[in-house]
Write a structure and sequence with these properties.
This protein is mainly β. It contains one helix and six strands, in the order ββββαββ. It has a four-stranded antiparallel sheet, with helices on one face. A two-stranded antiparallel ribbon has the order 5-6.
Length: about 100
């Protein structure tokens, strides 16, 4: 994914501007792995092999995203994943679901 596309993507649910955390780039600077997040609804959208996955929740497959998120969990700045959203990890363990 080229960095020039970042400014044109918004959250599909609430049309808010997304934030981006980059995990890997190729030699030309294209984003290979990363994570878009919506500060408003807290939904996340992974970038996998250069492709942002921005489908509605009902069409997403948690089992397919699990290995990717597991690899990035140390870089999520204290957040955990739950129902395609990021939550602060300080919440009770009952609310957390494993990646």
């Amino acid at each position: 994914m080229k960095a020039s596309m970042i400014d044109i993507l918004v959250c599909p649910f609430d049309k808010q501007t997304l934030t981006l955390k980059i995990f890997a780039k190729d030699l030309e600077g294209a984003i290979i792995e990363g994570l878009f997040t919506c500060p408003h609804c807290q939904r996340y959208y992974p970038i996998v092999q250069g492709i942002p996955i921005m489908t509605p929740d009902e069409y997403r497959e948690p089992a397919l995203e699990k290995p990717i998120l597991k690899r990035w969990e140390g870089q999520l700045d204290g957040y955990k994943v739950r129902n395609f959203q990021l939550e602060e990890s300080s919440q009770s363990k009952q609310a957390d679901e494993p990646l």
